Amino acid sequence: MNEHIIHRNFFRLLRAGAFQEELTLEPMSAYKWQKLCLQADIQGVRSFIEDEIIRQADDDYLNIPEGLVEEMAKPAGITDAEVFSDIRPLSNRFLNKRLMKIIEAEENDYDASPASLRILGLLIYNVKQILDYGLDFEGLLQLGIFLRSTGEKVDYVKLEQWLKMLHLKRMAQLEGSILIAVFGFSQDEIPFVETLEKEAIDIVMGTLHKKKKLDPADEWYFRQRKDGFVSNNSRRLQRNLKRSLHYLRYASLETTSSFFGNLVRSMSEIEE
């Protein structure tokens, strides 16, 4: 992986913070350290890198600026982080009915596998994030943490059946491929990855090119103005259409339903 030094240190810090790996950081200029931390804020993963930056701050060789260390030591404040323990509903009604049946059957099964249901929830969380907003590093790290801590308790035969029923097998394989490509996982650690998705690296690098956090003001397609006319957020619409077309090959039913569901929901919010 021939990425920029900022990206190399970024992923090493995430691996150290999320998976307690001991990895060597490379020295950078103060400007590049600031850019790295800005990227962590944009991706919502600052909490994973704070402790490691503070721990290595005394290493003069790394050139970590003192002001940055002080900033990392400040409480991040209250966030609106998603609760990863709940399984989010799918946008496709047909697939969501199947999901509800899976959950109900598992809850009433004497030989239930809570770990299998939990990892299904994490995989679906990432699917929803990817389709609505793009790749979510926090969700992927939570998936990786679970695999490393509890993966041996998962019934992967059952998980494979569920993913096929929900038409999410290839999307799950993409998530696993990203963990393998940039977070140091082996394919043996992720049994639901049969074939590495070649696009994994390109998707990751495209995500790192984001220049700012998602603006809530962009979270609409149509809006009624004060003068009564309806305005269209064409930039948002085009961006989501492009994303949906890209992920059709990974989860065609859920991708299509997610796009049109968001479109209809936006139109329904217009005052009559």
The overall pLDDT, averaged over residues, is 86
- Structural class by sheet pairing and helices: mainly alpha
pLDDT < 50 runs, ≥5 residues: 77-83
Q: Helical segment tally?
A: 12
**Going across the major beta sheet, what is the strand order?**
1-2
Major sheet description: 2 strands, antiparallel
Report the span from N to C terminus: 53 Å
Annotate the secondary structure layout.
Blueprint: H1 5-19, H2 30-43, H3 46-55, H4 66-73, H5 93-107, H6 114-132, H7 137-150, H8 156-165, H9 169-182, H10 200-207, E1 222-224, E2 230-232, H11 234-247, H12 252-268
Give a description of the structure:
By secondary structure, the protein is an all-alpha fold. It contains twelve helices and two strands, in the order H-H-H-H-H-H-H-H-H-H-E-E-H-H. Strands 1-2 form a two-stranded antiparallel sheet. A hairpin with a 5-residue loop joins strand 1 (222-224) and strand 2. Helix 6 (114-132) runs antiparallel to helix 7. 31% of the residues are buried. The model is unreliable at 77-83 (pLDDT under 50).
Which short descriptors sum up this protein?
272 residues; mainly alpha; two-stranded antiparallel sheet; 12 helices; globular
Quick description:
This protein is mostly helical and 272 residues long. The protein is built from twelve helices and two strands; from the N terminus they run ααααααααααββαα.
